[in-house]
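Q: Two folds, back to back.
A: First:
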Amino acid sequence: MPWEFNFYVHNQSRFRHPLRKFHCAAISKNGHHCKNTTVIGEPFCWVHLLYQHHLRIKTSTIAGAGQGCFAMDKQRPAGTVVFRAGEQIIHYYGEIIDKRTLNERYGRYTAPYAVELTKNRGGGGEYEDAALDRSAAACINHPRHANEANCRFALNQARTEVRIMATKDIRNGEELFVHYGDQYWRGRNGPAHHTTTYV
């Protein structure tokens, strides 16, 4: 069943589009590319996301938040550390768009899945938007309380990629939480979004 992203303001749809499907980027044990496809969890299918990257996407512990991203290692007992503080967890994958495309989609409102990569003095810049190219990292929710955040966004020096880094030891079965920043919440008055399946 296809998935569709819908961003709307005051109950009026502003940007609506199906999520894209990708072939899994993982190499299987036999040395061949995985034949599975993925829609949520890009660029990995759920099998390789779980067994190679120790992540699982499932319903968030935050009511109404939809899906969340959890540390999960099937080889270790519950409660053991999967990611150590300071360790890279995964890259934030998404569609690279410019400021004009960002504004066409979201106007003056916060883009719920976009991370700013570069800024230009002329008002331009590049963004990585996971609204349609939905990576596992895009499923990491903002915590209910600031002290619950256990990972953070980290830009590389060239500002070409975003990584998710652990800020605390994260244990098997724990949900990942990243603080979105104050600017994210300033543009959230009026808009809403959801991702649903459709026939």
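A: Second:
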Amino acid sequence: MIKRLFHSLLILSIVLILSQTILKNIALWGIIPDIGLIFLVFFSSTHGAQESQFSGFGFGLLEDVVSLSPMGFHALHRTICAYVFGLGKGNIFYDPIFIPTLMILLGTLLKYILYFVFSLVFNLGLTFELVFNFGFIIELLYNGVLAAALYFLYANLLNKKEVEKGAYLG
């Protein structure tokens, strides 16, 4: 378990660095895809709620350090997202396109709902209209389009051992 957590945090750290540097070049209206969320959802759904909470929390803390948001903002919502999608381990049959895309769309929606709720808790002054705006739709489309391709990468390249053990239904 510790080895998988280390690997997931390493991959998520690389994704975070890519998001903060290279992916900013493909931003539409300042919005980039949340590849970290995509990998976190896939990791959570294959490893369960208990294990994925730690990955979500660690990734969120790293994101808090490199962003201007209050400390704990990303850690809290990434932990909750990881837990929620970890509950689906063993309960969902994964086809190569539809289910990963649906999971990422739901994950993006959950992320924005948590953004709104936590902005109220952290008193950031965000209103519903500021959170669920055109940027939300752009990120939803970005993440949905990338979901199937990144699922293929995750299932066949990064998670080969779990596929061979039968722990992953892809």
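Q: And?
A: The chain has one domain: 2-22+31-165.
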